[in-house]
Amino acid sequence: MKIYSLGNKKPKISKKSYIFEGVTIIGDVEISENVNIWPGVVIRGDFDKIYIGKNCNIQENSILHNDYNKAIILEENITIGHGVILHGCYIEKNCIIGMGTTILDNSRIPKNCIVGANSLVTKKSKLEEGTLILGSPAKSIRKLIKEEREHIEKNYKEYLDLSKKYKKELIKEIK
Protein backbone atom coordinates (compact mmCIF):
# COMPACT_ATOMS: atom_id res chain seq x y z
CA MET A 1 0.00 0.00 0.00
CA LYS A 2 1.31 3.42 -0.94
CA ILE A 3 -0.11 6.40 0.95
CA TYR A 4 1.09 9.88 0.08
CA SER A 5 0.44 13.37 1.37
CA LEU A 6 0.46 16.09 -1.24
CA GLY A 7 1.47 19.40 0.32
CA ASN A 8 -0.97 19.90 3.20
CA LYS A 9 -3.44 17.31 1.81
CA LYS A 10 -3.04 14.18 3.93
CA PRO A 11 -5.10 10.97 3.74
CA LYS A 12 -7.17 10.02 6.80
CA ILE A 13 -7.81 6.29 6.99
CA SER A 14 -9.80 4.47 9.67
CA LYS A 15 -7.87 1.71 11.41
CA LYS A 16 -11.07 -0.34 11.09
CA SER A 17 -10.69 -0.55 7.30
CA TYR A 18 -8.82 -3.05 5.14
CA ILE A 19 -6.63 -1.72 2.37
CA PHE A 20 -4.83 -4.29 0.27
CA GLU A 21 -1.19 -4.09 -0.66
CA GLY A 22 -0.86 -2.52 -4.10
CA VAL A 23 -3.36 0.29 -3.49
CA THR A 24 -2.25 3.90 -4.03
CA ILE A 25 -3.88 6.72 -2.03
CA ILE A 26 -2.83 10.35 -2.57
CA GLY A 27 -3.87 13.63 -1.00
CA ASP A 28 -7.22 14.75 0.38
CA VAL A 29 -8.79 11.32 0.95
CA GLU A 30 -10.91 10.23 3.92
CA ILE A 31 -11.70 6.55 4.39
CA SER A 32 -14.28 5.60 7.03
CA GLU A 33 -14.57 2.41 9.06
CA ASN A 34 -15.25 -1.00 7.53
CA VAL A 35 -14.14 0.12 4.08
CA ASN A 36 -12.25 -2.44 2.03
CA ILE A 37 -10.10 -1.53 -0.94
CA TRP A 38 -8.68 -4.24 -3.22
CA PRO A 39 -5.46 -4.58 -5.30
CA GLY A 40 -4.62 -2.06 -7.98
CA VAL A 41 -7.02 0.68 -6.85
CA VAL A 42 -5.82 4.29 -7.23
CA ILE A 43 -7.49 7.04 -5.18
CA ARG A 44 -6.07 10.42 -6.12
CA GLY A 45 -7.39 13.39 -4.14
CA ASP A 46 -5.01 15.98 -5.51
CA PHE A 47 -7.56 18.56 -6.69
CA ASP A 48 -10.48 18.09 -4.30
CA LYS A 49 -11.69 15.82 -1.49
CA ILE A 50 -12.51 12.15 -1.85
CA TYR A 51 -14.70 10.79 0.94
CA ILE A 52 -15.49 7.07 1.25
CA GLY A 53 -18.23 6.29 3.78
CA LYS A 54 -18.51 3.25 6.02
CA ASN A 55 -19.06 -0.25 4.66
CA CYS A 56 -17.97 0.61 1.12
CA ASN A 57 -15.84 -1.70 -0.98
CA ILE A 58 -13.79 -0.69 -3.96
CA GLN A 59 -12.72 -3.60 -6.09
CA GLU A 60 -9.61 -4.28 -8.17
CA ASN A 61 -8.21 -1.71 -10.57
CA SER A 62 -10.79 0.99 -9.96
CA ILE A 63 -9.75 4.65 -10.20
CA LEU A 64 -11.12 7.55 -8.15
CA HIS A 65 -10.05 11.02 -9.23
CA ASN A 66 -11.52 14.49 -9.46
CA ASP A 67 -10.97 18.04 -10.63
CA TYR A 68 -11.11 21.41 -8.88
CA ASN A 69 -14.43 21.89 -7.04
CA LYS A 70 -15.57 18.38 -7.95
CA ALA A 71 -15.26 16.22 -4.86
CA ILE A 72 -16.05 12.52 -4.89
CA ILE A 73 -18.46 11.46 -2.17
CA LEU A 74 -19.45 7.85 -1.52
CA GLU A 75 -22.05 7.75 1.23
CA GLU A 76 -22.22 4.27 2.83
CA ASN A 77 -22.91 0.63 1.95
CA ILE A 78 -21.64 1.00 -1.62
CA THR A 79 -19.98 -1.61 -3.83
CA ILE A 80 -17.70 -0.30 -6.56
CA GLY A 81 -17.06 -3.16 -9.01
CA HIS A 82 -13.83 -4.13 -10.75
CA GLY A 83 -12.31 -1.55 -13.10
CA VAL A 84 -14.71 1.32 -12.35
CA ILE A 85 -13.73 4.95 -13.01
CA LEU A 86 -15.24 7.57 -10.70
CA HIS A 87 -14.45 11.18 -11.57
CA GLY A 88 -15.87 14.06 -9.51
CA CYS A 89 -19.19 12.36 -8.72
CA TYR A 90 -21.57 11.70 -5.82
CA ILE A 91 -22.99 8.27 -4.97
CA GLU A 92 -25.74 8.06 -2.40
CA LYS A 93 -26.01 5.14 0.05
CA ASN A 94 -26.89 1.54 -0.77
CA CYS A 95 -25.70 1.26 -4.36
CA ILE A 96 -23.80 -1.19 -6.54
CA ILE A 97 -21.72 0.23 -9.37
CA GLY A 98 -21.07 -2.55 -11.90
CA MET A 99 -17.72 -3.54 -13.38
CA GLY A 100 -16.22 -1.28 -16.00
CA THR A 101 -18.64 1.58 -15.37
CA THR A 102 -17.53 5.21 -15.73
CA ILE A 103 -19.23 7.96 -13.73
CA LEU A 104 -18.24 11.47 -14.83
CA ASP A 105 -17.98 14.90 -13.20
CA ASN A 106 -21.07 16.33 -11.50
CA SER A 107 -23.01 13.07 -11.81
CA ARG A 108 -25.14 11.83 -8.94
CA ILE A 109 -26.30 8.27 -8.38
CA PRO A 110 -29.44 8.26 -6.19
CA LYS A 111 -29.69 5.88 -3.22
CA ASN A 112 -30.70 2.25 -3.57
CA CYS A 113 -29.61 1.85 -7.20
CA ILE A 114 -27.71 -0.72 -9.22
CA VAL A 115 -25.66 0.63 -12.12
CA GLY A 116 -25.10 -2.17 -14.64
CA ALA A 117 -21.66 -3.17 -15.91
CA ASN A 118 -19.98 -0.94 -18.51
CA SER A 119 -22.46 1.91 -18.12
CA LEU A 120 -21.46 5.53 -18.78
CA VAL A 121 -23.05 8.03 -16.41
CA THR A 122 -22.78 11.61 -17.65
CA LYS A 123 -23.68 14.77 -15.76
CA LYS A 124 -26.83 15.12 -17.82
CA SER A 125 -28.14 11.69 -16.80
CA LYS A 126 -31.56 11.89 -15.16
CA LEU A 127 -31.58 9.00 -12.72
CA GLU A 128 -34.25 7.89 -10.29
CA GLU A 129 -33.88 6.48 -6.76
CA GLY A 130 -34.24 2.71 -6.40
CA THR A 131 -33.72 1.85 -10.07
CA LEU A 132 -31.62 -0.29 -12.36
CA ILE A 133 -29.40 2.06 -14.35
CA LEU A 134 -27.94 0.89 -17.68
CA GLY A 135 -26.41 2.13 -20.88
CA SER A 136 -24.18 4.68 -22.51
CA PRO A 137 -25.36 7.26 -21.70
CA ALA A 138 -26.95 5.63 -18.66
CA LYS A 139 -30.68 5.80 -17.94
CA SER A 140 -32.96 4.52 -15.20
CA ILE A 141 -34.54 1.46 -16.83
CA ARG A 142 -36.94 0.23 -14.13
CA LYS A 143 -37.52 0.01 -10.38
CA LEU A 144 -35.45 -2.62 -8.58
CA ILE A 145 -37.25 -5.76 -7.52
CA LYS A 146 -37.08 -7.01 -3.93
CA GLU A 147 -34.27 -9.50 -4.62
CA GLU A 148 -32.13 -6.81 -6.24
CA ARG A 149 -32.61 -4.45 -3.29
CA GLU A 150 -31.62 -7.28 -0.93
CA HIS A 151 -28.58 -8.03 -3.11
CA ILE A 152 -27.18 -4.54 -2.50
CA GLU A 153 -26.98 -5.18 1.25
CA LYS A 154 -25.81 -8.77 0.84
CA ASN A 155 -23.02 -7.67 -1.51
CA TYR A 156 -21.40 -5.05 0.71
CA LYS A 157 -21.69 -7.37 3.74
CA GLU A 158 -20.02 -10.25 1.84
CA TYR A 159 -17.10 -7.99 0.95
CA LEU A 160 -16.83 -6.78 4.54
CA ASP A 161 -16.66 -10.41 5.73
CA LEU A 162 -14.16 -11.26 2.99
CA SER A 163 -11.92 -8.35 3.99
CA LYS A 164 -11.93 -9.57 7.61
CA LYS A 165 -10.91 -13.04 6.42
CA TYR A 166 -8.09 -11.55 4.33
CA LYS A 167 -6.92 -9.40 7.23
CA LYS A 168 -6.71 -12.46 9.45
CA GLU A 169 -5.63 -15.23 7.07
CA LEU A 170 -3.74 -13.77 4.09
CA ILE A 171 -0.12 -14.89 4.04
CA LYS A 172 2.37 -13.34 1.63
CA GLU A 173 4.26 -16.08 -0.18
CA ILE A 174 7.92 -15.33 -0.66
CA LYS A 175 9.71 -17.29 -3.37
TrEMBL record:
Entry-linked Pfam families: Hexapep
Source species, domain of life: Bacteria
Sorted UniProt keywords: Coiled coil
CDD domains: LbH_gamma_CA_like (cd04645)
Species in which this protein is naturally found: Hypnocyclicus thermotrophus
Protein name in UniProt: Carbonic anhydrase/acetyltransferase-like protein (Isoleucine patch superfamily)
Organism lineage: Bacteria, Fusobacteriati, Fusobacteriota, Fusobacteriia, Fusobacteriales
Coiled-coil stretches noted in the UniProt entry, renumbered to this chain: 142-169
InterPro entries, sorted: Hexapep, LbH_gamma_CA-like, Transf_Hexapept/Carb_Anhydrase, Trimer_LpxA-like_sf
Keyword presence, Coiled coil: yes
